[in-house]
Specification:
Length: about 220
């Protein structure tokens, strides 16, 4: 059963509010709209890119009936604290992508991530966390008032390193879901995040190439004068 089906079977209906992540894909917010409810966007935690429990609590109103949290990039949402918020306010809490059996290759990805963590200096590496499966290895390229992340990504690709911008816009700026809100952690994540290769099939030589390319571009991170 998808998000819309879960909400519908729980009695969520037109006019109800459902708190959803502002960072990520639009599918969860769209599922809320499909059952006639109103998505209310909450900010994410700066380390995990998942819903910040404090932001969830702040987003609750008298019309809020549910919260949908999503695990992101292999990092788990703080489901325990979010469920505590739910209990406090009498809300349904749905957690998408609850961890189960770990996928093939996860230990290899963790090994690759540890290698990158210990050697990268041209980017801000992911915050370590128990249970992280590194479905994506998402780093930050801090901005200095110009599109440093995008310039950094172009320079990496020119050096033969495949990389992707994981999220291009806050969900609240996507067509059909626009809201007049500004959530700072979400905005910064959209501007700064970049996914580097970490799949299980990478060779040590390819990992070294990623490190060399990123570290050689570290000058892009220096403040503009």
């Amino acid at each position: 059963m998808g998000t819309a089906g879960t909400l519908e079977s729980a009695g969520v209906h037109a006019g109800d509010e459902v708190v959803v992540p502002a960072y990520g894909n639009a599918e969860v917010a769209e599922a809320v709209v499909r059952v006639g409810a109103v998505p209310v966007f909450a900010d994410v935690d700066a380390d995990s890119y998942c819903l910040d429990p404090a932001a969830v609590s702040a987003a609750v109103s008298g019309r809020t009936v549910a919260v949908v949290a999503v695990h992101r990039f292999g990092r788990q949402a703080d489901a325990g604290r979010i469920r505590e918020v739910g209990r406090r306010h009498g809300l349904l809490v749905v957690v998408e992508g609850e961890p189960g059996a770990e996928p093939d290759g996860v230990e290899r990805r963790r090994t690759h991530a540890a290698y990158l963590d210990g050697r990268l200096s041209g980017v801000v590496t992911p915050t370590a966390a128990a249970g992280h499966t590194y479905e994506r290895y998402v780093v930050r390229v801090p901005g200095n008032g110009r599109p440093d992340r995008d310039a950094f990504a172009r320079a990496l690709r020119a050096r033969g390193v495949a990389c992707q911008v994981p999220v291009r816009a806050p969900v609240y700026r996507m067509p059909g879901l626009r809201r007049e809100v500004f959530l700072p952690c979400t905005e910064r994540a959209v501007e700064e995040t970049l996914a580097l290769p970490v799949h299980a099939g990478l060779s040590r030589r390819e990992l070294h190439k990623i490190v060399s390319a990123c570290n050689a571009l570290g000058g892009l991170l220096q403040p503009a004068f």
